[in-house]
């Protein structure tokens, strides 16, 4: 039971119903019992446990945030970040690998140990 009823200020009809409540409950109709329940409680269990559509609003905000963040990241990549350095191009990486193989870098356990210098291909 709640500490105090939902409706504290009763009109004449509700006061008459409260007086009738003190008598036998078998004399009360179903509508009167429902009205008495509504005076005491705000909502029924079914109304309390009913699903809401709040999840749609939350998901809308989440997707809006993700979209806005994606736009900010795109804008930063296009207008703020400098162009990629030349050392990250595939051509540069191929030349660097060839230079390391020519210098025989780490021939015991490293990169040069996996290269066959006679056949000019990777060992299998």
Your description of this structure?
- With 124 residues, this protein is mainly alpha-helical.
- 52% of the residues lie in helices and 3% in strands.
- The protein has helices spanning 12-21, 30-40, 45-48, 54-80, 90-102, and strands at 115-116, 121-122.
- The chain has a two-stranded antiparallel ribbon with strand order 1-2.
- A hairpin with a 4-residue loop joins strand 1 and strand 2 (121-122).
- The longest helix has 27 residues, at 54-80.
- The protein is rod-shaped and about 110 Å long.
- The protein starts with 11 loop residues before the first helix and ends with a strand.
Topology, please?
Layout: H1 12-21, H2 30-40, H3 45-48, H4 54-80, H5 90-102, E1 115-116, E2 121-122
Antiparallel strand pairs: 1-2
Helix pairs in contact: 1-2
User: What's the helix-strand series?
Assistant: HHHHHEE
Estimate the strand proportion: under 5%
Proportion in helices: 40-55%
The major beta sheet can be summarized as: 2 strands, antiparallel
Helical segment count: 5
Distance between the termini: 80 Å
Query: What gyration radius follows from the Cα positions, in whole Å?
Result: 39 Å
Work out the number of β strands. Answer: 2
- Which stretches are low in confidence, meaning pLDDT under 50 for 5 or more residues running? none
Structural class, by secondary structure, is mainly alpha
Strand order of the largest sheet: 1-2
Report the mean per-residue pLDDT as an integer. Answer: 90
Shape: rod-shaped
């Amino acid at each position: 039971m709640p500490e105090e009823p939902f409706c504290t200020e009763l009109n004449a009809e509700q006061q008459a119903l409260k007086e009738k409540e003190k008598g036998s409950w078998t004399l009360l109709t179903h509508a009167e019992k429902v009205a008495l329940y509504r005076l005491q409680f705000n909502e029924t269990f079914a109304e309390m446990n009913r699903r809401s559509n709040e999840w749609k609003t939350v998901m809308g905000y989440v997707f809006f945030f993700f979209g806005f963040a994606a736009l900010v990241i795109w804008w930063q990549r296009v207008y703020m970040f400098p162009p990629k350095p030349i050392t990250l191009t595939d051509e540069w990486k191929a030349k660097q690998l060839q230079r390391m193989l020519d210098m025989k870098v780490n021939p015991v356990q490293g990169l040069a140990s996996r290269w066959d210098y006679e056949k000019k291909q990777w060992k299998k």
